[in-house]
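Field log, afternoon session.

UNIT: design team B
ACTIVITY: writing a sequence onto a fixed backbone
BACKBONE:
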């Protein structure tokens, strides 16, 4: 079996007293678009920098296509495309000159392919980098990451600064890239930013992996909202017992619901009456993202309480979720 394109194995990185990455392990499979999510300072860029051998792990290791990040860094670079979160570019070069310079460092690229990428992202390569808008800088960064048709693309916050139309095209580009047997690892601040494009996501907070989930599973778990308009007044209580329904409020003949999972039981219950209209709200993934982190805060608080309680009569123990 071919090795996983990316393996992070018990990775820990400390900066003095700060534990930026704390015993993080996960694997990304070939052909996946994998999202790495977390708030500011969570440890995303630090993990990525270790993976790229830009900094040295305190302990643990990373592998790319079965090769060790540290020992085989040069070989890895041939199959890898990388967009750093803080891409440095020469201000006096144009976008095209920047790409030519980077292509030269990599021993040449297929310019027809680079031109295709520019066209897709609607990048203006004629201007000097100093004159670029942040979105245009990001486009040049993305193009340089893909210009050698990498087996593995590692992108630190690629969507930052891209307008919605360019984001759509960028997502289509990523899908095409993985359909050709390649793999994409990208970081982001929110789930809603990447939910349309990622297959799986890992959540990191304070350097710790909170969860790794399939996007399909998260969608199924996400709370959805529904507004039903009936021909006659309804009682909310009748719907609270329906499978998947969390909340129900009635205002005359209007019923507002929150539910998760399949809509089928709910529709069955609703259509026993005369329904005038159904309005379905979108998945609230931003809320779900926040829930992941709120839960962690609550757990950390609970652990701290337990630790204080334990201290009185027996040795302090810290649970797996303790900080
Ligand atoms: N070179 C460094 N020296 C000291 N501390 C650092 C260094 N790099 C990162 N850190 C610290 O490590 C932690 C993780 O930072 P990191 O840049 O990995 O977060 P991030 O998830 O990428 O955040 P953001 O979304 O803001 O980019 C932070 O507390 C940060 O201050
Ligand atoms: Mg970062």
């Amino acid at each position: 079996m071919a090795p996983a394109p990316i393996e992070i194995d018990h990775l820990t990185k400390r900066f003095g007293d700060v534990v930026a990455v704390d015993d993080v392990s996960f694997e990304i499979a070939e052909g996946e678009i994998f999202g790495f999510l977390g708030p500011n300072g969570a440890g995303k860029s630090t993990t990525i920098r270790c993976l790229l051998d830009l900094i040295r792990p305190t302990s643990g290791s990373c592998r790319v296509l079965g090769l060790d990040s540290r020992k085989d860094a040069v070989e890895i670079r041939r199959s890898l495309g990388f967009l750093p979160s803080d891409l440095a570019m020469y201000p006096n070069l144009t976008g095209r000159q920047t790409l030519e310079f980077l292509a030269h460092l990599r021993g040449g690229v297929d310019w027809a392919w680079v031109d295709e990428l520019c066209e897709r992202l609607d990048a203006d390569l004629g201007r000097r980098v100093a004159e670029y808008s942040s979105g245009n800088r990001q486009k040049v960064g993305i193009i340089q990451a893909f210009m050698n048709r990498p087996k593995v693309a590692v992108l630190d916050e690629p969507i930052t600064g891209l307008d919605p139309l360019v984001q759509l095209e960028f997502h289509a580009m990523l899908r095409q890239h993985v359909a050709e047997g390649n793999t994409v690892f990208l970081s982001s601040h929110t789930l809603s930013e990447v939910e349309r494009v990622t297959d799986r996501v890992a959540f990191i907070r304070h350097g710790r992996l909170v969860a790794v989930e399939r996007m399909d599973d998260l969608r199924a778990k996400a709370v959805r909202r529904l507004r039903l308009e009936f021909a006659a007044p309804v009682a909310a209580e009748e719907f609270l017992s329906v499978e998947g329904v969390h909340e129900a409020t009635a205002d005359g003949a209007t019923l507002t619901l929150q539910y998760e999972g399949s809509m089928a039981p709910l529709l069955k219950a609703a259509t026993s009456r005369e329904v005038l209209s159904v309005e379905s709200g979108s998945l609230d993934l931003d809320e779900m993202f926040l829930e992941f982190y709120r839960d962690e805060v609550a757990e950390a608080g609970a652990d701290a309480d337990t630790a204080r309680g334990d201290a009185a009569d027996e040795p302090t123990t810290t649970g797996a979720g303790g900080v």
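LOG NOTE: The chain is about 35% helix and 25% strand.
NEXT ACTIVITY: expression trials, pending approval
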